[in-house]
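Entry 0007
Protein: RING-type domain-containing protein
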Amino acid sequence: LSSSMASALEDALVCAVCLDLFQEPVSLPCGHSFCQACIRRHWNSSGDCRCPQCRRAIPDPLALRRNLSLAEVAEQLRARARPSVPLCDACPATPARPCHPDHHMHSLSLEQVQEALKATKEGILERQRGIERLDAATESLRASLAQERMECEQTLAQLAESLAQLSGQAAELFRRAEEESVSRSAEIRQHLERELSELRKRENSWSQLALRESTGEEAL
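Output (structure tokens):
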């Protein structure tokens, strides 16, 4: 494999949570894969069972499917990157894992020095890629949160506008109801006053008639 293809393959075998080669990878229904321990730890800390990459909800987080193919390839890549030449009598030092400075090191051949240098450079590149992936994930999360905040603010503004409109409509309804009530009360009052006036006129007429009748009887 070319270095670019090998790098792409290694990136495909890296967990997006821990940014390291897969350990006991599991695949989610959306197709993304993570270390089993990483995805469970992520869900426990966030309290939201969604895919960290596409944000798709996972209906059954307990039914995680082991991805044996990814596990096998990741382990093979890990084994290839693990040097086997011991460099120290006191500890299992390798070119990728130097021993303690106080330990006695074997006299190194040029090939071993080159191997150690290569492993160190690969370690540096791996950490740099990890930092880049972490920065990209952080920037993506920041952009996502900014977008969600903007959408939330827009929704709140729309709700405030709708609430203001409803408040104005309610005030108009109450004003009209009050006007109609006052107008209706005035009409009823006028009607009652007219009836009262008529009744008083009748009362006066009946009183005069009663007075005449009473006077006529006394004259007889």
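Curator remark: Residues 111-204 form one domain. The first strand starts at residue 25 and ends at 27.
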